[in-house]
Write a structure and sequence with these properties.
heterodimer; A: 368 residues; mainly alpha; ABC transporter involved in vitamin B12 uptake, BtuC; 13 helices; disordered N terminus; disordered C terminus; B: Rossmann fold; Rossmann fold; 6-stranded mixed sheet; 20 strands; 33% helix
Chain lengths: 368, 510
């Protein structure tokens, strides 16, 4: 009849939200995370490939800084990733989950390519480039505006909507390539290779320098916009609490639409830079997954455009290093992806320890 | 005498520094209905959550059929045949009633929905429910959903049923039906606990009444010996003198006339029913009522955040003498009319302030539009922030600390400080001292008094009747969206207000 009474079982530790943390402590945690990730990666390298991990890490650094050409390629990749990250940041800060940067960049690029391909030989280059720029921005805006309007008017789910818009853009590009490439090949060659019509010029003999400069300026502009402008303040309030926004009389719908116009415009600009400044051609992979990577860059930097220079550098550095070791050591590219994945996992995972602390339960009661 | 169905002995539960339940003991026998009565925040729901396995008591024992039990999870509670019907239903909208009823059950053998429906029909017939087991939840009315919740626990064989504010969402006719069902369950030998604060329902349905006040167990009385006034006194307690200074209103002219406003929620429920009152300059108008009687909607209607079905809100501008109807205007339009309306909402960090922003940026919420450039001007907000920190003694590392890191009292000082900095002509404050310590509370009372002396029409929504009576010049009492009375704060009596707060619908009087 008398059941033995079970003492209340308490866990050995519990997790509590931190009430803020000194910035240097946060950076120590991040540093420890990176070192830990390198150790884990070294173990994987030794176990799977029997290579010396230090050599592998050396090769990774060479992938970015090994030669001047590699360094410029690094800067160019960094600029493009940063540009798309800047584009998604206002939307994310407003808690509008824009997963459609990929499609917005692609459609923006397509708009440029239409002009470049169809009327590239009939306009002076400066006019053509300007027209392409405007077309790309409008294209990006259109692709962002459609889900934004639906969200503002009917509260549709923006993540799904923007995601779907990506596929529409991909199919449109496939269609355009089919029309433009008579051979039936799905790869479009470099357009206007001889006339260089619609190509952004080299600056001081440097390829991509215009891209890099434009993105550098954009970074500062976006920082100022988010930090010091009334618009930036409004979108931050909407993101933090729509109730507060309503309470102080912010027109939430207007802010959503306005911010998505900005987000789409910058995506369109990125599409233009990729088509006109970098690739001079178009393919389905124009954005190359950067539309999604950008989300990570933006979050890791806590939506601060200046910090995004660092986070996007980190990601591009890892990507390029991964490619380098894959070729140097005759490894499958998958191993490079595994390493990149581990490092990013640690970097993102350590945010948990920055936001939370683990406390051991001090109560004297022993479980059982 | 037989063993009680459930017995609680000296249950205590503490959250941080707040004692939610202190030494509560209760007994319910089979075939008995117990009402658990208490004001908001008196710990009724916490207590019941410990029986149903959502919380675990810090101290005390629970006995079921004479045996001590340990209830660690809702599943343990089910095993002890305890079923709780929560205030907010926990049903899957897309599923049918029968599917929801068996959801989560682990029955052996082949699952057959037809058998379930048969059993549901059986239960319905036994207790007098009316339900279509194959109807989907989203097609149901609130009362049907509640029926599903009750059948759900009966289907699991519950012998002890707990209903948390079951009549809050029902019409009087539906309430009558529910009571009939509850009486049938009593006849069947179930032990039933109803959490409520409506006195007339307590008297109508229960056998015994247990009263909690501020987490403490006050006592149990037999319903046949109880009257509304006995229960009210047990519920609200004896008068405590607070000594808040109350000056006589000077030139109390009409500032805000609310006339016959009606408000309908998205679900089609009338939240405000024909409300009329006048707020006068230089006066504090208190609003008393059980939580959820329409206080929030009333203030939000005035602030331009709530669409009204009918009625008008007339503002008398003291400078121009003009009369403006604020109905259906946005907060921005109201401001553009020159109405200096300040509002301290109930939800401080979710509405009044932005938790992740610092004090300066929170000051800016009201003023950031000033200036013609597209850029923000942070100098004046910074000065204001520093002034508020100094004047109201806000404990903070600095003006650039995110407000969510501040303690509740300091958060409220920042919010109230900002709202009164614009020298409002109308100041509305909803539960401005909730969760605050005595010193901070008095600071807030003094600030409200100061605004009153400056000629603002102050509207103060409170929950502590002692404070309302000490602070307010007049007190308006709301009960389920109706004004049940407006009394003079100087002559009002707590029991009188308590009765008005629980007065049934239809008894509206001015």
């Amino acid at each position: 009849m008398n059941k033995p009474e079970k003492a209340a079982r308490e866990p050995l530790f519990h997790i509590a939200k931190r009430n803020g943390i000194a910035w240097w402590k946060a950076w120590i945690i991040r540093g420890v995370a990176i070192i830990a990730s390198l150790i884990v990666c070294a173990l994987i390298i030794v176990l799977l490939t029997k290579q010396n991990p230090l050599e592998v890490y050396g090769a990774m650094i060479k992938g970015s800084f090994g030669s001047q050409r590699k360094f410029w390629a690094l800067l160019q990749n960094l600029a493009m990733l940063l540009c798309i990250s800047l584009a998604v940041t206002p939307a994310f800060k407003m808690k509008f989950w824009n997963l459609g940067a990929e499609g917005q960049v692609l459609f923006g690029g397509l708009c440029s390519m239409v002009l470049m391909f169809e009327i590239g030989d009939r306009l002076p280059n400066a006019v053509l480039i300007l027209a392409m720029l405007i077309a790309s921005i409008l294209g990006g805006v259109l692709w962002a505006l459609i889900p934004a309007v639906f969200k503002a008017k009917w509260n549709t789910n923006e993540s799904l909507f923007t995601l779907m818009m990506n596929y529409v853009a991909i199919q449109l590009v496939s269609f355009a390539i089919m029309v433009w490439v008579p051979s039936g090949s799905s790869v479009m060659g470099v357009v206007n290779a001889s006339t260089k019509a619609g190509w952004l010029p080299d600056l001081f003999g440097k390829k991509y320098l215009i891209n890099i400069l434009i993105v550098a300026i954009l970074t500062v502009v976006m920082f100022v916009y988010l930090r010091f402008s009334k618009h930036g303040y409004e979108l931050a309030v909407v993101g933090e609490s729509e109730n507060t926004a309503r309470y102080i009389g912010i027109n939430v719908k207007k802010v959503i639409i306005r911010t998505m116009i900005l987000s789409g415009a910058v995506c369109g600009l990125a599409g233009f830079l990729l088509v006109s400044g970098t690739n001079h051609t178009i393919s389905k992979d124009l954005a190359g997954g950067n539309g999604f990577t950008a989300i990570m860059v933006s979050w890791l930097a806590k939506f601060n455009p200046l910090l995004m220079v660092i986070t996007s550098f980190l990601i591009v550095f890892l990507q390029r290093g991964a490619g380098e070791i894959a070729t140097n050591f005759n490894l499958n590219t998958s191993i490079a992806d595994i390493l990149t994945g581990i490092i990013i996992f640690f970097i993102i995972g350590c945010e948990f320890f920055i936001n939370y602390q683990i406390k051991s339960t001090k109560s004297g009661k022993e479980g059982k | 005498m037989a063993n009680p169905a459930i017995e609680l002995r000296n249950i205590t539960k503490v959250f941080g520094s707040i004692v939610a339940n202190k030494d509560v003991s209760l007994t319910v026998y089979k075939g008995e209905i117990l009402s658990l009565l208490g004001e908001n925040g008196s710990g009724k729901t916490t207590l019941m959550n410990m029986i149903s396995g959502i919380y675990f008591p810090d101290a005390g024992q629970i006995f079921i059929d004479g045996q001590e039990v340990v209830i660690r999870s809702p599943k343990d509670a089910f095993d002890h045949k305890i079923g709780m019907i929560h205030q907010h239903f926990k049903l899957v909208d897309r599923f049918t009633a029968a599917e929801n009823i068996v959801l989560g059950l682990k029955e052996k053998g082949k699952f057959n929905i037809k058998d379930v429906e048969k059993k549901v029909a059986e239960i319905s017939a036994r207790y007098g429910f009316e339900i279509d087991p194959s109807k989907k939840i989203y097609e149901m009315s609130v009362s049907e959903k509640q029926t599903v919740e009750i059948i759900k626990v009966l289907y699991r064989g519950a012998n002890i049923l707990i209903l948390d504010e079951p009549t809050a969402v029902l019409t009087p006719q539906e309430t009558e039906k529910l009571f009939a069902v509850i009486r049938n369950m009593r006849e069947d030998g179930k032990a039933i606990i109803i959490i409520t604060h409506k006195l007339h329902e307590v008297l109508a349905v229960s056998d015994k009444v247990a009263v909690l006040r501020k987490g403490e167990y006050i006592g149990t009385v037999e319903t046949k010996d109880a009257t509304e006034s006995i229960l009210t006194e047990m519920m609200v307690g004896k008068k405590i003198s607070l000594n808040i200074e109350r000056s006589e209103p000077k030139d109390a002219v009409d500032r805000l006339c609310v006339e016959h406003i009606d408000c309908v929620s998205r679900d089609g429920v009338r939240i405000l029913k024909d409300i009329s009152f006048t707020a006068r300059a230089g006066e504090i108008l208190g609003i008393a009522g059980i939580a959820g009687s329409g206080q929030r909607e009333l203030l939000e209607s005035i602030a331009g955040l709530q669409k009204l079905h009918s009625g008008s809100i007339i503002y008398h501008n003291p400078k121009t003498g003009a009369q403006e109807n604020l109905r259906d205007k946005t907060p921005t339009q109201i401001r553009e009319l020159g109405v200096r309306l300040s509002f301290v909402p109930e939800d401080r960090l979710g509405m009044g302030l932005v938790g992740n922003m610092d004090i300066i940026d929170n000051m800016m919420l009201r003023s950031y539009r000033k200036g013609k450039t597209m850029f923000l001007e942070r100098k004046k907000p910074r000065t204001l922030a520093e002034k508020i920190i100094k004047d109201l003694e806000v404990v903070t590392p600095g003006a650039t600390t995110p407000v969510r890191r501040l303690s509740g009292g300091n958060v409220q000082k920042v919010l109230v400080g900002r709202e009164i900095s614009s020298s409002p002509t109308v100041l509305m404050a909803a539960y401005p001292v909730r969760g605050l310590d005595i010193n901070s509370s008095y600071l807030i009372y003094n600030l409200l008094n100061e605004q009153k002396e400056n000629g603002a029409a102050v509207i103060f929504v409170g929950e502590d009747l002692d404070v309302l009576i000490e602070l307010c010049d007049r007190i308006l009492v709301l009960s389920s969206g109706c004004v049940t009375g407006i009394v003079d704060g100087r002559t009002a009596d707590k029991n009188e207000i308590g009765l008005l707060m629980t007065k049934a619908e239809g008894g509206a009087a001015e």
